[in-house]
Amino acid sequence: ESNILMIGDRKNELGGSLFYDIHNELGANVPTPDLDEAKNQIYAVTDCIDQNLFYACHDISDGGIAIALSEMTFENNIGLDVHIDGSISLEKILFSETGGFVVEVDNKNIQKVENILTDYKLNYNNIGKTKSAPEIKMNGVIDISLDDAKKLWSNGLRNKLK
């Protein structure tokens, strides 16, 4: 098991998202990037990559953190169990397209990564762990096998979003 960190907060920025597109809505609050924060996120992530502190790294963009985390699991069939806290609704937490990153970090590197993120004054949270069981669990509401998720992602969802 390794740690999964979320870099950057989830915000009420679901407007223009894939989530709303599926529901034939537009929404009002589109992501408004904080350029200084985005710059610091990129510097911190680059520093960590240069020091080989991540097993994996994925940007949070189309589909929000739920899709970013799912895509991270597909390549090596590694499961995960995460819980993402927030004061906004669950669909906004999971699918808001506010920028940020999710990273997978070994226990032996977690302190170094946290120090780098803190040095760049970034908000981050340890949201869960990878699992050997091939399943995706998020916030107690998503519980799906990797096989099923990958089929939906590569077939159904792609066809729906075209």
Question: Percent range for helical residues?
Answer: 25-40%
> Strand arrangement, largest sheet?
2-4-1-5-3-6-7
User: How confident is the prediction overall: mean pLDDT?
Assistant: 89
Number of strands: 7
What's the gyration radius in Å? 15 Å
How far the N terminus sits from the C terminus, by CA atoms, comes to 36 Å
Secondary structure layout:
Blueprint: E1 3-7, H1 18-22, H2 35-50, E2 56-59, H3 64-74, E3 79-82, H4 90-95, E4 101-105, H5 110-119, E5 124-131, E6 135-138, E7 142-145, H6 146-161
Parallel strand pairs: 3-6
Antiparallel strand pairs: 1-4, 1-5, 2-4, 3-5, 6-7
Helix pairs in contact: 2-5
Q: Could you explain how this protein is built, in words?
A:
Helix 2 (35-50) packs antiparallel against helix 5 (110-119). The mean pLDDT is 89. With 162 residues, the protein is an alpha+beta fold. Strands 2-4-1-5-3-6-7 form a 7-stranded mixed β-sheet, sandwiched between helices. 40% of the residues lie in helices and 21% in strands.
